[in-house]
Design brief:
Strand content: under 5%
Shape: elongated
Helix content: 55-70%
Distance between the termini: 35 Å
Oligomer: single chain
Number of helices: 7
Largest sheet: none
Radius of gyration: 22 Å
Order of helices and strands: HHHHHHH
Number of domains: 2
CATH topology of the largest domain: 434 Repressor (Amino-terminal Domain)
CATH class of the largest domain: Mainly Alpha
Number of strands: 0
Length: 121
């Protein structure tokens, strides 16, 4: 099977996928010319994106900041929630120190952050 090799090819194929998405619905038969073309081109786009735009695991600092935003927490309130000082929270958020296992457990439980992200595994 052919692969997308250049950004220009990717853009052209991606554009065609966008066009086909307007035509193909859940009711389109699997043996339809448009359905088959969309299926093949979507796989090509997905393969190119996996190779050229890999998704990396989120880092703990960004996840904590996002969760703070979502929950409307400031550093003072987060420090109270975790049972640590505000300066310690500041160190976590700037990357100057990492949480202890006990604090990591609290971050996971109280902020609802997956343990694998908190532990960096």
């Amino acid at each position: 099977m052919r692969v997308i090799k250049t950004e220009k090819e990717y853009e052209a194929v991606y554009s065609r996928v966008e066009e086909l998405l307007k035509v193909v619905t859940n009711k389109t038969p699997n043996d339809s010319k448009d359905f088959i073309e969309l299926d093949v081109l979507s796989d090509l786009v997905a393969d190119y994106e996996e190779a050229n735009f890999p998704v990396t695991a989120p880092n703990l600092i960004d996840v904590i900041k996002l969760r703070m935003y979502e929950l409307g927490l400031n550093q003072k309130r987060l420090s109270e929630l975790l049972g640590v000082s505000t300066s310690r929270v500041s160190e976590y958020l700037t990357g100057k120190s990492e949480p202890t296992l006990k604090v990591a457990r609290e971050i996971s439980k109280k902020l609802g952050i997956d343990a694998s992200i908190v532990l960096g595994v």
